[in-house]
Specification:
- The complex is a heterodimer of chains A (about 130) and B (about 120).
- Chain A is built from 5 helices and 5 strands; from the N terminus they run βαβαβααβαβ.
- By secondary structure, chain A is α/β, with parallel strands linked by helices.
- Chain A has a single domain (about 1-130), classed as DsrEFH-like (Hypothetical Protein Ychn, Chain: A), CATH 3.40.1260.
- Chain A has a 5-stranded parallel β-sheet with strand order 4-3-2-1-5, with helices on both faces.
- Chain B has a single domain (about 10-120), classed as Hypothetical Protein Ychn, Chain: A, CATH 3.40.1260.10.
- The chains are: A alpha/beta (about 130), B alpha/beta (about 120).
- The interface between A and B is medium-sized, with 15 and 15 residues.
């Protein structure tokens, strides 16, 4: 089956993102496809390239990125939820006159409409919320 | 609810307004769905029923508030608003205290409501 995950919890503060990552690995180990992960609500913090966890803790941002590199999973981030939380990419930073940016490829800022498309073109959408 | 089809989506709202952005961001999904031509049904459960209480204002936190969005739902053809009757009663409310006309449901019908929708979003 082709799965999509909806992640709504911030990394390190709550369990949701960590459970989602474990579920992602379990799906792939079982031979399923993980087509897309959509980050919404506080889940958008999972897309920050500036995250710098201590070395003895799992690096969630790197783990999401590796899912994209190894399995082609799309990493979509709701732009409306992200911008108001300071999770912006280089283009939005330029547009709003900000010096830095937090989102880079393979994470993509996208509209909420994409979440509905993801739901309709994957076999399952599984939500992970705090 | 007879118009439920593969195009239908259920947005479940379980959080009270003001204390978090769950309600606002959940309603955003409902509005986007309606704008994309989906038949959107809302289901208010638990503390989510407080979202519908009349007389809400913006409050001192500077949040936008969700009551204006609720007033706009009809414009988006979102007119199926399901509310857990028991959750209302537990919070000292009745359907007359709500800012919109709603359909009261009870726990026993929940499995059927979930089964009837092709896509479900939980906030």
């Amino acid at each position: 089956m082709n799965y999509a995950l909806l992640v709504q919890g911030a990394p390190y503060s709550q369990q949701a993102a960590h459970s989602a990552l474990r579920f992602a690995h379990a799906l792939i180990a079982r031979g399923h496809t993980l087509g897309t992960i959509f980050f919404y609500h506080d889940g958008v913090y999972n897309a920050s390239r500036l995250a710098t966890p201590p070395q003895d803790e799992p690096h969630l941002v790197e783990a999401w990125r590796r899912l994209h590199e190894d399995h082609g999973t799309s990493l979509l981030v709701c732009i409306a939820a992200a911008l108001r939380r300071g999770i912006i990419d280089e283009r939005e930073a330029r547009r709003h006159g900000k010096a830095g940016y937090a989102v880079e490829s393979p994470f993509e800022l996208t509209g909420l409409g994409q979440l509905l498309d993801v739901h309709s073109n994957h076999d399952r959408l599984v939500t992970f919320s705090p | 609810m007879s118009d439920t089809t593969d195009n239908s989506m259920l947005v479940v709202l379980r959080h009270a307004p003001h204390g978090s952005s769950w309600l606002r961001e959940g309603l955003d999904v409902a509005l986007v769905g309606a704008a994309l031509g989906k038949k959107v049904h809302l289901l208010f459960l638990g503390d989510g029923v407080l979202a519908l209480a009349t007389g809400q204002q913006h409050g001192p936190l500077g949040q936008k508030g969700t009551h204006p969005t609720l007033d706009m739902l009809e414009m988006y053809d979102i007119d199926m608003i399901l509310v857990d009757g028991k959750a209302l009663t537990q919070r000292g409310l009745t359907a007359d205290d709500l800012q919109l006309p709603v359909s009261l449901i009870d726990d026993a019908t929940l499995p059927e409501i979930f089964a009837r929708h092709s896509s479900i979003y939980n906030f």
